[in-house]
Amino acid sequence: MKPADAARAVPVTNAPAHTRVGQFIGLFKPRIGLAIAYTALAGFAAAAGASPDPRRASVLFVAVLLASGAAGAFNQYLERDLDARMERTRRRPFATGEFGHGWGWPVFFSALLLGAVGLAAATTNTVTALFVFLGAFTYGVVYTLWLKRRTHWNIVVGGLAGSFAVLAGATAAGPHPGIAAWLLAGILLLWTPSHFWSLAIALRRDYAAAAVPMLPVVRGVDATARVVLGNTVVLVAATLLPALFGMGRVYLATAVLGGAYFLAGSVRLIRNPTPAAAVANFHASLIQLGLLLTGVIASAALNG
Known about the structure:
By secondary structure, the chain is mostly helical. Helix content is 79%, strand content 0%. It folds into two domains: 21-177, Orthogonal Bundle (Tetracycline Repressor, domain 2); 178-304. Helix 11 (179-202) runs antiparallel to helix 16. The model is unreliable at 1-13 (pLDDT under 50).
């Protein structure tokens, strides 16, 4: 390894130590990782019912969190040129040059992913490990590297990352997850476009400046708001289906409450498609998902 290569392979910054630590942690998008890991726990609960293995659930959570973090960091490494042209992301350390751009970073991220997959394989089974890998690969490679710069369908396919997290959790509980877990995986696939396109409306100028073909850039804000509402209607209808396959009244209550809240936000967005309304609907989508996943876990514990 040449000295120049080594210098580019590690952080290059004069920032204070606490700032460097914060920048390093931020590479892994911890809030997204925690949400994905919680999604995996919901899949685990849907398949395991009221008799989950706490040790297996804990290891699953850690493995998915690490894999998601690796994918999120790889996303930032690959998109440093896009991030530098967007107001929301231009202060990320790869975009500013605070962190070097050497090959050491992707090697590190790949090792982290392999460690997460190995942990899942050693403590659960190979099918779960495969889904853990597919979730990270979908976000880090399929979405980031192959689709994001090419097509406005990018986030639709990218939504599979959440679906794979559900399936990782479900298969960790047993070889036969059941219809409720498969429905939950489909729900995550439907949820992602409404969630992300709401944010993309608010950030349309950023994406246009970076030449990223997000739906609001390609089709316009009004058309995107209509698509968001239509997709949300289908999503909310889909969230009611698991109640027919044993998820119980607690789940149904959270699905109805969260779905109504998200629908109301989507209606407001189509009536007044402003950045503020788009951000509000983005937050509504997070509330809906949080209620839904908590409902899955609570229902499984009470009714398993």
